[in-house]
Specification:
This protein is mostly helical and about 400 residues long. The protein has a single domain, classed as Up-down Bundle (Growth Hormone, Chain: A), CATH 1.20.1250. It is built from 16 helices and no strands. It starts with 14 loop residues before the first helix and ends in a 10-residue tail after the last helix.
């Protein structure tokens, strides 16, 4: 008889090491995916960009990286994590080089096109969730997915390192370095990553598989919640430098904005596995509701535009932490609620929804910015309202807590 995803833990020996390697691959992908945002101030000055153009430049990689997760998640069910990790990493290389070319010649529209293809790197998340889930029994998948989710530390790496590298070694050289990291990581994945013995290739055609996932109520429920928690994280990770430089121009410079964004991302990364572990223990619903309540409260405070300093930093860290908890909890909710043969497809759709949740806020922030008062208050109030709506919806859903082994 072929093994199933409910195999006993001894048969899944080595899963932690495999998930760590997948996490490193995701880190490289996220660094590439978010490589435009940390240098947005350079692009804005060099190309004379307005608020709308900056928002479009930042949102394009997020859009493609989000929608592409649907296809990549379904393909992971068919081809496995080892092949798909390698494919996504190598397919991101030309996009990074195109970003370097666009920035070198000062072409805004080429940069947008490059950002479109750069979205491929963002699809890497949809590979890792089904891969990691297959390495652990249901009662520990919140932990597994939380560990893999720490790969989004690539966002913090990009925010912290990219502007500093561009200053120290040069703009083009920085992007070449990112390419080297992608290629090296692809080689490590190809030679050392292996599929879980519990994983079985799904031979179902991709289109019916995706449509089947879309027919499940859990897909839409989790998509809505993840669009808030992960979408908020992506939106602030890309737009926070612009926000800080606009609202606090006398207190924050480009490097300082990058550092604050890196700390924001790091806080979410640290909280994500904690959210998964707590969801395994107390239930994904409870932790998700705590996360949403924290997002609503912190977004309200940020909307008041307090003076830049300890309070502002603490509130942004609180927001990032609660988003991280929610990311871990929502995917801990997905696993036990989804048929095993549809985990990849459902994961792809939910991950896409999360990315789309990060696509629209930068556009909304740019469109609702009030230059007369130097305020993004309207955009932040919209986050408060949407988060409150998600809190109500989440409270109405049924929890899914897999039985723990004795």
């Amino acid at each position: 008889m072929k093994p199933s995803v409910t195999l006993d833990e001894p048969a899944l020996t080595g899963g932690f090491v495999q998930v760590i390697l997948a996490t490193l691959a995701s880190t490289a992908g996220f660094w590439a995916w978010m490589s435009i945002a940390p240098l947005q101030n350079i692009y804005a000055r060099g190309m004379g960009l307005d608020q709308g153009q900056i928002s479009l430049m930042l949102a394009t990689p997020v859009l493609v990286g989000s929608l592409g997760r649907i296809l990549v998640g379904a393909m992971t069910d068919r081809f496995g994590g080892r092949r798909m990790f390698t494919l996504v990493l190598l397919a991101s290389v030309p996009a990074v080089l195109l970003v370097a070319l666009a920035g070198s010649i000062g072409s805004f529209w080429l940069l947008v096109v490059a950002g479109f293809f750069l979205g491929v790197a963002g699809t890497i998340f949809a590979v890792g969730i089904p891969f990691s889930s297959a390495w652990f029994p249901p009662a520990r998948r919140g932990f597994a997915n939380g560990i893999f989710g720490m790969g989004m530390i690539g966002t913090a790496v990009s925010a912290f390192a990219t502007p500093r590298l561009a200053t120290s070694i040069g703009y083009v050289q920085t992007h070449v370095l990112i390419v080297v990291v992608l290629v090296v990581m692809a080689a490590l994945v190809w030679f050392f990553l292996r599929e879980s013995p519990a994983w079985q290739s799904s031979r179902q055609p991709l289109v019916p598989k995706v449509t089947g996932a879309l027919k499940l109520a859990v897909t839409w429920q989790m998509s809505f919640l993840y669009a808030i928690v992960f979408g908020g994280f992506v939106a602030f990770s890309t737009y926070l430098p612009k926000y800080l430089l606009t609202i606090y121009p006398d207190e924050v410079d480009a490097v300082g904005a990058g550092t604050r964004t890196a700390l924001f991302a790091a806080a979410a990364v640290i909280a994500r596995p904690l959210g998964g572990v707590l969801a395994d223990r107390f239930g994904a619903k409870v932790i998700s509701l705590i996360s949403l309540a924290g997002i609503v409260a912190s977004a309200y405070v940020v909307g008041q535009q307090p003076p830049e300093g300890v309070l502002t930093g603490a509130v942004f860290l609180l927001m990032a932490g609660t988003m991280g908890l929610g990311m871990g909890a929502v995917f801990a909710w997905v696993g036990p609620s989804t048929p095993p043969d549809k985990v990849g497809a459902v994961t792809g759709v939910v991950a896409a929804a999360g990315g789309l949740g990060g696509y629209f806020p930068p556009l909304v922030m740019g469109a609702t910015y009030d230059a007369s008062t130097n305020s993004y208050a309207l955009g932040l109030w919209l986050l408060v309202l949407v988060g409150a709506g998600a809190l109500v919806v989440g409270g109405m859903l049924r929890d899914a807590r897999p039985a723990r082994r004795k």
